[in-house]
Give the backbone structure.
Amino acid sequence: MTPEQLLYTKSHEWAYIQTDSAGDKIATVGLSTFALELLTDLVYVDLPEVGRRVTAGEPLGEIESVKAVSDIYSPVDGEVVEINTALADNLAGLADDPYDAGWFVKIKITDESSLSGLLDYAAYQKQCEEEDH
Amino acid sequence: MPNNTTLHTPLYDWHVANGGRMVEFAGWVMPVQYTSIIEEHKITRAAVGIADISHMGRLRFEGPGAAVFLAELLTRRVADMADGQIRYSLVTNEQGGILDDVLVGRYHNDYGQPYYVVVVNACNRAKIVEWIGAHLPLQRAERPGHEVIWTDVTRLWAMLAIQGPRSVELLQPLIDANLKTMKYYRGGQVRILHPAARRQGGIISRTGYTGEDGFELSVGAGIAPGVWEAMLEIGKPLGIVPTGIGARDTLRLEAGMPLYGHELSEQIDPFQAGLGFACHLVGYDFPGRDALLEIKKQPRKFVRVGLKMFGRRAARDGCPILADSKQVGQITSGTFSPSLGKPIAMGYVSPEFAKVGTELQIDVRGRKEPARVVQLPFYSRPKKGNKK
């Protein structure tokens, strides 16, 4: 997938929305290039258990660099259905591939209205440009 | 984001033009890193890294009364210092709380007259300047034969840290003193043998905040960018990199060195911080001496320890330290150690939990992580002559 196809939170998570074979909407969630370039020197990622209920805007895990630890916020309301178990061992390469191999969790969306709070690519780009100053 | 009340070092433009990620630190805009903290850290340990530390406050004292005035201000003996000698010292308040930790160096100018340079923390510069003002009344500063002339030269001079096992190789071609034979905690006023220095000199000392061999060099603000670029050019074959304050923090933590605002504060006394060696309680009277004589006799309530962790989650400043789920102390600094590949931390615990080998837990954002008290420093540089 490409960055243009994704939705974003103001806190720099991306979400890719697909409908699975059972008709459920699934959000694949990761961190944007902008966020990863700011973090650098990643040493640890803490992801939720499969089955955990998450709420848009609430922390679902944390990512730690040498310098500091940051929360990862859920972009949507839903239930965690899959986590990327390979991520912890590939943190050094995360910034090189944040939109494919670098996904964090997949969330089955339980409340589609939570999607309305997300930014499209153009709006997110604009926010990043403003933060860069 | 940096605002316009923050200060810029003479190298600010260079940092911005060369990928420095600028952050606000103690009232200054400083590069936290250029590439990666871990890489800058590892190159400092393996070869040589240079850092802009011009935010460090530097106060210069001269005049016939300077030595005695400093002896009555600092916890460490000053009056017996030899030319070219540097000492670690503290400034304490009347209660014995730590106002700052400093380096005091004695140098001489071309006419043989001694002067002292006191290097203070950036975050404490205004406080110490005020403290000196309060303890140096005009009648004393101007008393014939006892005059003290002092200047805050922080903005006039840049200060560069050159740290790592190859720092002598890097610097020797630039400096007219023999650096190989210069001892640790010694220094002097030197000539800089490079056109970029425009025939100006500097003050060099074999000191640092990384646990590596290395030097700190003060030069005029105007020549700092030229000297900095000359070092990067000369250091290319050695693998030199510029390093930011991010690596400076991980390096000093591995070296077990305290940082003001974390391990040190006005609420902490020198003995609990493990800095009793920096307090000479006989001889010259200084603010806090009587209080320190009293504190020294009392049992310690808390002592500073090093803690090694086993997982990946690092303890950070403020995390509670637990023994059997009961709080026995608090973390003051913590990070991931690039040299050890594990999180390390420093903090204060009750003395009964301070023994090396004691198993404790640290509450890291609501989850208990195991930790063990270890000997400080976490990292010591390989001694010369030792087989690897």
Remarks:
- Residues 57-152 of chain B form a domain with the Alpha-Beta Plaits fold (CATH 3.30.70.1400).
- The interface with chain A takes residues 1, 32-33, 36-38, 246, 250, 312-314, 316, 335-336, 338, 365 of chain B (CB under 8 Å).
- The CA atoms of residues 33 and 244 of chain B lie 4 Å apart.
